[in-house]
Amino acid sequence: MSSNSVSTNIQNAFEVVRKTYQNIEKLLAELDRQGNELSLEPVLPQFIRWKSDREYNGWLIDSFFKLYQKQEATPCDTENGWKDDVVYAIEISLEGEPVLNVCKYSYVNMESVPKASVSDHWKFYWPLYDEGNFSDITLENGKTKSVPIDEKVSEKYLGLQDVVWKEIDLISITSSNIKEVIFEELQSL
Description:
Layout lengths: L2 H35 L2 E3 L20 E8 L16 E7 L5 E9 L13 H9 L4 E5 L4 E6 L2 H6 L3 E10 L8 H10 L2
Antiparallel strand pairs: 1-2, 2-3, 3-4, 4-7, 5-6, 6-7
Keywords: Coiled coil
């Protein structure tokens, strides 16, 4: 392979990544817009993600979480930025086949959960993927319930009781079916 074709391949690969990120940006904005119409408000204005300067895998973002809570839920007395209610999350994952996970996180005590930050990715990511620290229970309609294996794991993950989630094929989502495919699933968790 000539150096010219290698150069072209690299340029094309990065163009695909840029276009993918552009489409994710549009999807995240539409999620916020439609979520607002359904009385869900973002916990943070931006998505949360894992990034690392030390690990090359952390140079590329391939997992994006948007966190939401019900607008009418009561704010925590501790003024930690959370409401005393469940946390809804939508993860866009590009780690393998592109998927979107709709999730509902339940905590022992939202008052004790620290203020959210864009670097909190691991606190929401690992309960979905760490089979060593979470037991998965298969529910009906393609849903899964992940439960910390013990109190120590629960405490590490902010007092997490459980997370109920469902994986959806990202490619199947269009601007005309976001409400049905994402938000109706999210609210049925």
